[in-house]
């Protein structure tokens, strides 16, 4: 038990993303992906159907805002278009958008907290997001426009935080791109 306490103490004090960061994320990302699998059986809800329709229109040459009305920024429709192009089926495209977004949330929460707080805090947060997010949202709430920007905001925050200790212009540019997405 003493060895475990010593290891946890080291993790609580260790800051910064280490070379093996991806090993820390294998478990949480895999669990999050597995927890998203049952969503394949759920029906497509109203908002998701709107975005899938917009994506299909864009894939058939229609121009957002000119050829059809949508009251939201086109980023969600672009994400759905990409997913629909990759898988071809609207139901699977919806699940792909949701699952990739959840996985990116787990990754960027880990990276942000690993750099800003500690590796232990990052692991605990990654596991919390991996277990909580896929199980706390029903079919009506998945892949919503409010949810899709979260990984990009986390990525931008992480890049800005990294900029403080590593002054590289590309980090600021990347943070701006993430914010713009």
List low-confidence stretches: none
List the secondary-structure elements in sequence, H or E.
HHHHHHHH
Main beta sheet strand tally, sense and closure = none
Shape: globular
Q: Helix count, per DSSP?
A: 8
Structural class: mainly alpha
Radius of gyration: 19 Å
Approximate helicity band: over 70%
Distance linking N and C termini: 46 Å
How many beta-strand segments? 0
Mean pLDDT: 80
Give the DSSP E fraction (strand runs of 2 or more residues). under 5%
Quick take:
This protein is mainly alpha-helical and 181 residues long. It is 71% helix and 0% strand.
Structure overview:
This protein is mainly α. It contains 8 helices and no strands. The radius of gyration is 19 Å and the shape is globular. The N and C termini lie far apart (46 Å). The model has no long low-confidence stretch (mean pLDDT 80).
Task: Describe the secondary structure blueprint for this structure.
Elements: H1 2-13, H2 21-36, H3 46-59, H4 75-87, H5 90-116, H6 119-136, H7 150-165, H8 169-180
Helix pairs in contact: 2-5, 2-6, 3-4, 4-5, 5-6, 5-7, 7-8
List the main descriptive attributes of the protein structure presented here.
0% strand; 181 residues; 8 helices; mainly alpha
């Amino acid at each position: 038990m003493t060895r475990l306490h010593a290891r946890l103490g080291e993790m609580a004090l260790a800051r910064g993303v280490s070379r093996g960061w991806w090993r820390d994320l294998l478990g949480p990302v895999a669990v999050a992906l597995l927890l998203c699998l049952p969503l394949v059986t759920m029906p497509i809800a109203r908002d998701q159907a709107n975005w899938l329709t917009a994506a299909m229109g864009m894939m058939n040459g229609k121009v957002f805002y000119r050829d059809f009305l949508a009251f939201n920024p086109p980023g969600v429709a672009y994400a759905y278009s990409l997913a629909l192009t990759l898988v071809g089926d609207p139901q699977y495209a919806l699940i792909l958008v949701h699952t990739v977004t959840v996985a990116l949330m787990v990754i960027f929460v880990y990276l942000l907290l690993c750099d800003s707080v500690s590796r232990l805090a990052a692991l605990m947060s990654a596991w919390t997001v991996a277990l909580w997010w896929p199980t706390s949202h029903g079919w009506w709430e998945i892949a919503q426009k409010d949810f899709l920007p979260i990984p990009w905001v986390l990525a931008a925050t992480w890049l800005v935080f990294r900029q403080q200790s590593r002054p590289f212009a590309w980090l600021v540019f990347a943070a701006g791109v993430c914010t713009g997405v």
